[in-house]
Amino acid sequence: VVEPWPFEARGLLFYAPGVRCLSTRLEAGGLTCTLEIDADCRLGEHPFRIRTDGHFSDLATVHVGPFPIVKEDENSPNTNDTAATALPVPLGTTVLGRLSASRTEDVDCFRVKGKAGGRLSVEVDAVRIDDVAGVQPRLDRFDTAVTIFDPRGVEIAQNDDSPLHRQDPLVSVLLPEDGDYVVAVRRVMFFDSETSYAVHIGSFARPLAAFPPGGPAGQPLAVTLLGDPLGPISQTVQVPATAGTFLLEGDAPSPLRLRSSPFPNVLEDPAQQATAVPSVPVALNGILAKPGEVDRFRIAVAKGVPLRVRVWASGLGTPVDPRLSIRPIAADGVPGAAEVVADDTDPAGRDIIAATGDFPEVFDPSVIWTPHKDGDYLLEIGDSRGAGGDTAVYRVEIEPPPPAVLVALRGGGYGEEDSRASTLAVPRGGRWTINVKLAPAQGSGFSGPFDLIAEGLPEGVRLESPRVPAGVSSWPVALVAEPDAKPTTALFSIMARPVDADRTVTTSNQQNIPRVNFQGDSWRSIRLDRFAMAVVEPAPFSIAVSAPNAAIVRGGEMTLPVKITRRAGFEDPIHLQAMFAPPGVGLPPLQVVPTGDTTVPLHVSCGSGAPLGSGPCYVIATTSWPRPGPDGKPGPLTGGLRVSSAFIELGVAEPFVKLSAEPQSIRRGDRLAYRWAVKQVVSFPGHATARLVGLPVGVTTTGAAPTLDTTTAEITFDLEATDDALVGLVNGLACELTFTIDGQEIRLRTGAGKLRIDPRQN
């Protein structure tokens, strides 16, 4: 449900197959969509966006479960809080419930029939199904717990948080007797606000981990599913050919996460003090089966050859907070001092960029290790808390750091999703330009130069982007739709293609959309590996920026005209903002263009230390007002109609001249010829006019403004001081020079002069 809704909905775009929109209906409460779910649809969360005639919505999600759904339908708060008032439900049911905002704690109870020796499994979705994108004053309203009571009312199982689902609980037990069992759902802390949830209740198998937790890409893998109350479950899994994390579905409402890797498995040998590893690359797999256990592997490596050692445990949902160490083994077989000791990893170390939120894999170490010597090393892994157990599964992938580029769209920060960076609605005959985040993968060593290309764009849409220089972390790309492009949606990828044709790199795309935000962080993030775009109806206006005829000089300023073309009948105010420029070039703040204006000056400035060279610049125009930020000042532009200009190239050059002046003095009532020495740096055509700035009250220039050309060695300003001038030293005098190069006006401020004002002589 989305409200208000300014455009007519034309369809939904899902990021994965299995869900289709059959119809949409605009009602007083918002937009209602009717969906059809395939029988083999992947279970869990399915993100989507809504396309309208002129808009592409923020991200929303729908969750697909395996069971029929019933509603709690509690008529008034606290009416099903006991076993006697529990709502009876059959096994294999999902209940949509709501913990109310009553003055006393709300507990929702459900009664199911069970048999001795049977299994009762319960999963709660609360944080995972909450679609709240804005800032929350308290997060504990989403933190739930589940308890199971036997027929006599004795608690037999309870769970609050779970390694598999973080704040959302799950529990599975072996039933001791026949009878009615009660499942109770509550908040961990009392909170006088409503909390929606879904609780899945059934006899389904609920394994908590798989061993081994991954295998060679494209091959069958025999795994044992661990943690189910009826015991281990054996099965064979077909590992996907594409490397990465994949999902293993079963009878439960949510899958397990496993790894596909392009190298062989080695399983720990509990009978050995250290499991022998034949070679690297390799994936090591083990279980910390008891508290305090440390597993050891003996590997042979070459001196000076970098390796990426990446642990997977928390990132797969297992109850391990791993700690890694790597020590050389001396000739006498005794391990030496550790070359590597690692625990947690920052997001960049896990190849996560442009993101805020809860990422379980940051609890898993990932390091680039360059061995100090040839020979054998001892790799040790344990739990940093000393924990262990039957499901404490881990995996260590060791390989040369793969050359890879990460391309990300910013999904949002402290508040809601930033629609300028993620809701890519391209008007027919127009363009939508964004800045993507770029980073080399951990240890990659490759950062450019490269070209960005798109894969998966619909017919009539293309990607434009200047060549990416080495070492940049942000870069603009434009989606351009031809006038005859059909309104549609698509999922696409942005790939990096090295300028050096002999280089091979892989590219991964990501967008991390935060949910349930609090104090700049969030309890979860929606992970996307492709970008969504839509072609919408033409915008009623367009903009164009005139490319400059000359470079802007260090310490200088330049004005670029922005032309606005309005379609007949469109008179709304337009908001302009330049969004990208070369390093050291300053851009003006948001400008509001009132009705009637067709040309707007864009003032840009250049710092005195800006790097020489050139880079792209573009301007966006939108009809929406900026949403206020946390400080009350205008925040990012959101929603509304939006277009962008084509790229222009801005060059940064050395200043044509540099001026300097010796300290000089003037008495009240006197005149002075204030002299500036001119150092010629770069030849320029014509001449420049000069203006003295920074003069104090009571001191003025007289006569004509001086000019200079490429032969000028000195310029002079005639000054006159009145009795209004304050006696003392004045710092910060400077010259503002105005050059006209091929019709382009360039202003340069240079020099640092001093003037002492003395009393009138009696």
Main features:
disordered N terminus; mainly beta; 1 helix; 62 strands; 9-stranded mixed beta sheet; 762 residues
The total count of strands amounts to 62
Shape: globular
Strand content: over 45%
Overall mean pLDDT stands at 91
Q: Poorly predicted ranges (pLDDT <50, ≥5 residues)?
A: 1-5
Helix content: under 10%
* Class inferred from helices and paired strands: mainly beta
> Cα-atom Rg, whole angstroms?
33 Å
Distance between the termini: 84 Å
Biggest sheet statistics? 9 strands, mixed
Oligomeric state, counting identical vs distinct chains: single chain
Number of separate helices: 1
Question: How does the SSE layout of this entry go?
Answer:
Layout (H helix, E strand, L loop, with lengths): L8 E6 L4 E9 L2 E8 L6 E9 L7 E5 L4 E3 L15 E2 L4 E7 L7 E8 L4 E7 L18 E6 L5 E5 L10 E5 L4 E9 L7 E8 L6 E3 L2 E3 L3 E7 L6 E6 L5 E5 L7 E6 L3 E3 L7 E2 L5 E6 L6 E8 L5 E6 L9 E7 L11 E3 L23 E4 L5 E9 L9 E7 L4 E6 L9 H4 L1 E4 L3 E10 L9 E6 L5 E4 L9 E8 L6 E11 L7 E13 L2 E8 L2 E6 L4 E5 L6 E2 L2 E11 L7 E7 L4 E2 L4 E3 L5 E8 L6 E10 L3 E3 L5 E4 L4 E3 L3 E6 L3 E4 L3 E4 L3 E10 L7 E6 L5 E4 L4 E2 L5 E8 L6 E14 L2 E15 L4
Parallel strand pairs: 6-8, 7-9, 17-21, 22-24, 23-25, 32-39, 33-41, 43-53, 55-62
Antiparallel strand pairs: 1-4, 2-3, 4-5, 8-15, 9-14, 10-13, 10-15, 11-12, 11-14, 16-18, 18-19, 20-21, 24-31, 25-30, 26-29, 26-31, 27-28, 27-30, 32-34, 34-37, 35-38, 36-37, 38-41, 39-40, 42-44, 44-48, 44-62, 45-47, 45-49, 46-48, 49-52, 49-53, 50-51, 54-56, 56-60, 57-59, 57-61, 58-60, 61-62
